[in-house]
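Duplicate of #3305? Posting structure anyway:
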């Protein structure tokens, strides 16, 4: 079957057919996915009924994997292989997470606009999310094109942000939701890292905003001014013309480029329905900015 991509919006995101994630890809197929990602930033591959082992193998075509274990769990008992970020509402025993479950409360941060692993020195390249069990009411995943958002800025703002460095930490995003219960070792593990606010894609050379709910400061700026400015940029970047909302069908495999997008999940009834989505994530090429000693 020929590989084809159908645009899903006038701006970005595409539906790719002709790729079978269950088998070993030929070099030209890997190249086709990379080319599609450089062009569309989000690709939806429907009908990918894959196992965990197949998802891991497929993901490794696009770089080394990041360990997906949730850093906010104390002595976590993982349901999945550590290569996965478990974004389900299911505990290790197979039952739904309770309303006050610590993992559930921390995962509510996924409802904020963010870029995966921006709180790490080496942030994420691609995220690959497999819809094993999906819900019919709510639970959409929304994506915002940070290239289009950057292009729509006025020249004065582009000049102002060109060399700005932001501080990212999971603590910043979780505290927005009132989740503040961290042990000292957790706070040390989640110390802020630095990233450029403006990134240039290594293949397309397009500039984009590197925004995320994990941003809590701008180097050299007072915290209130920095957070207000980042909020303004995020409101600009998530306007409807820049957003694609994906309604899940079982066995969709959705891939996105964290270097050029933000995303969030929309609310669903996670206390009464099961939603099992499993994410693998590949590492970016390296840090976007020089770090400082702890």
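Output from current build:
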């Amino acid at each position: 079957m020929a590989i084809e991509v159908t645009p899903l919006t006038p701006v970005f995101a595409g539906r790719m057919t002709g790729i079978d994630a269950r088998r070993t890809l030929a070099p030209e197929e890997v190249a086709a996915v990379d080319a599609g990602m450089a062009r569309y930033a989000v690709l939806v591959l429907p009908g990918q009924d894959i196992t965990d082992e197949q998802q891991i193998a497929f993901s490794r075509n696009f770089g080394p994997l990041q360990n997906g274990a949730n850093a906010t769990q104390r002595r976590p008992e993982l349901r999945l292989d550590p290569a996965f970020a478990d974004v389900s509402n299911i505990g290790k025993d197979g039952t739904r997470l309770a309303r006050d479950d610590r993992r559930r409360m921390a995962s509510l941060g996924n409802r904020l606009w963010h870029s995966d692993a921006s709180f790490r020195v080496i942030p994420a390249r691609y995220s690959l999310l497999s819809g094993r069990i999906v819900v019919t009411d709510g639970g959409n995943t929304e994506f915002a094109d940070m290239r289009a958002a950057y292009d729509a800025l006025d020249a004065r703002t582009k000049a102002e942000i060109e060399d700005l460095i932001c501080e990212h930490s999971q603590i910043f995003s979780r505290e927005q939701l009132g989740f503040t219960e961290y042990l000292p070792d957790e706070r040390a593990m989640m110390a802020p890292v630095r990233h450029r606010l403006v990134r240039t894609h290594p293949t397309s050379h397009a500039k984009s905003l590197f925004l995320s709910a994990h941003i809590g400061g701008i180097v050299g700026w007072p915290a209130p001014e920095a957070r207000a400015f980042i909020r303004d940029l995020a409101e600009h970047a998530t306007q409807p013309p820049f957003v694609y909302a994906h309604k899940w069908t079982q066995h969709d495999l959705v891939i996105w480029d964290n270097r050029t997008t933000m995303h969030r999940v929309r609310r669903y009834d996670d206390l009464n329905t099961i939603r099992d989505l499993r994410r693998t994530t590949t590492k970016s090429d390296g840090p976007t900015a020089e770090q400082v000693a702890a």
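Confirmed duplicate; merging threads. Residues 4-283 form a domain with the Double-stranded beta-helix fold (CATH 3.60.130.10). Helices lie at 27-40, 52-59, 102-107, 146-151, 155-161, 170-175, 184-189, 223-237.
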